[in-house]
């Protein structure tokens, strides 16, 4: 038997049971649900509600999901990959890349990161699906997320394509420069 879900909105579901058990069939359900959403993503909140002090989520994005660069004020965030490949890109306030973490389930790759404090970041998804476990402090307060003014908004699909192309090129240059400095 699969997990019981309570729908909060198109992209957000809460687990209905007091003991949350997630299996592979549940991940497959979340993938199907992500394909049906406008922004090509879905999250399963395993915490009770938006007011909880600890937020734990299983999140699924498709390859074509756009995550507008953003930073969280007054909270840390951790990210543990379950399936897929992603480059997590960090920026300064002007939009220059300051760091990047390649994460995947391959045995030689990193599979986890944690960021403390407000840093702009986004995801470059390299696989058909990205499934990850995210933990952050609650409660969720929308005004404590700042979106990068130099990145296209969620409804600017043409701007997103151009931005992601430039970002892919910039990530390649960043990696080359980092390897040239011996920072592998």
Features:
single chain, 184 residues, alpha+beta, three-stranded antiparallel β-sheet, 2 helices, 12 strands, globular
The helix fraction, in percent, is: 10-25%
Oligomer: single chain
Name the CATH homologous superfamily.
Jelly Rolls
Helix/strand/pairing category: alpha+beta
Query: Per CATH, what is the topology?
Result: Jelly Rolls
Report the CATH architecture: Sandwich
- Main sheet makeup: 7 strands, mixed
| Strand order in space, largest sheet | 1-2-3-4-11-6-9
Number of helices: 2
Name the poorly predicted regions: none
Structural domain count: 1
Name of the top-level CATH class: Mainly Beta
What is the 3D form?
A: globular
Mean pLDDT: 92
Q: What integer value in Å does the Rg equal?
A: 17 Å
The total strand number stands at 12
The run of helices and strands is EEHEEEEEEEEEEH
User: Percent of residues in beta strands?
Assistant: 35-45%
